[in-house]
Amino acid sequence: MKAKRLWIGMLGLLMCFLLCGCNVLNDIFGSDRYDNGYYDNGYYDDGYYDNGYYDDGYQPYNKSTTASNLISHYIDVGQGDCEFIEFPDGQTMLIDAGPAESGSKIVRYIRNLGYDYIDYIIATHPHADHIGGMKQVIDAFDFGTVYMPNAETNTSTYEKLLTTIKNKNKKIKTAKAKTKIGNLNNSSYITVETLAPNGNEYESLNDYSVVLKITYGKVRLLYMGDAETISEDEILKKNYDVSADVIKVGHHGSATSSSQKFVNRVKAQYAIFSLGADNDYHHPHTQVVNRWKKAGAQILRTDEYGTMVLTTDGNTFDIDTEKE
After folding, report:
1. Hey, where are the domains in the chain?
2. 235 by DSSP, 3-state: which?
3. 212: closest CA among 125, 300, 88?
């Protein structure tokens, strides 16, 4: 009889757990642990967590095997710009996020590298082909600091980005020449410099572009955003060191950027053009491509080679391309 009473008691406890178990688990883990829209009605339906999330074809590197390297990813986003940088100490940086339709691709790409946190996000300037996908990225990741130039526009893309940043309880730090980016310059072996913008008022939003130079040991990388010749001239007048082994060419190879004197000063081995195939702007312009070629640079275009990944140990570097 004692054993029978014990068995009946256990059955009662089991039924109680089945009926009330959800409430018990919710008390421990919270009621929204898997059903708050983040996994179901939100990003999942937008493709962030679809079946191809961790296997969308091109998976260039595993960060666990490249910890001593600096890796710069020039992500093919069509007619736009996006670079993702892995620093040797594990910190990460996103420079621009292409047009709106590229947002989910960028999220998948960064997730495939094994990251769920971005230390620094830099929106070089508020044009849609540079910040269009950034709202989705900011929605999907936790992140550190956002840097933007002191340039405003009244487009819905720009306003939605500001709202998204505010909703994450983050503030924007103004980026201009000589702005300190986090603690990335703690080592004498690596420096991150902002070279522009140097002025406060420009007619073109492009000239507000944040220009970055990253130096890792002997290897120098330059990221121009959409900076045009006005910004280039200001950089040269300041006598900033723009010499670089690899440059992400300004304004997708437009004739409004890459002046002859600027190209001569950079002396790049590789010039990377980020653009869409058969774009309406006829980028890159032939004279700009030839200008970089005559200066000794090998031309790499995202519309021809797809995403490119530069890996350096501070002494030498390699560039792998998605397409041959």
Report:
1. 35-52+68-309
2. helix
3. 125
Domain 35-52+68-309, CATH number (from 3.40.50.300, 2.40.50.40, 3.60.15.10, 3.20.20.70): 3.60.15.10
Separation of alpha carbons 127 and 207, rounded Å: 11
* Order of strands, sheet of 246-248, starting from the edge strand that comes earlier in the sequence: 190-196, 211-216, 219-223, 246-248, 270-273, 298-301
Report helix, strand or coil for 103. helix
Instruction: Tell me whether the omega of the peptide bond preceding residue 197 falls within 30 degrees of 0, making it cis.
Output: yes
Distance CA 302, CA 315 (A): 25
Q: Residues 138-162, buried b or exposed e (16+ Cβ, 10 A)?
A: bbbbebebbbbbebeeeeebbeebe
pTM of the model: 0.80
Distances (CA, A) of 64 to 90, 177, 307, 316: 10, 33, 21, 20
> Is residue 225 a contact partner of residue 249, using CB atoms and an 8 Å limit?
no
Report the pLDDT value the prediction gives residue 277, as an integer from 0 to 100. 93
**What is the residue-averaged pLDDT of the chain?**
84
96: left (phi over 0), alpha (psi -120 to 50) or beta: left
Query: 87-108 pLDDT, tens per residue?
Result: 999 999 999 999 999 999 999 9
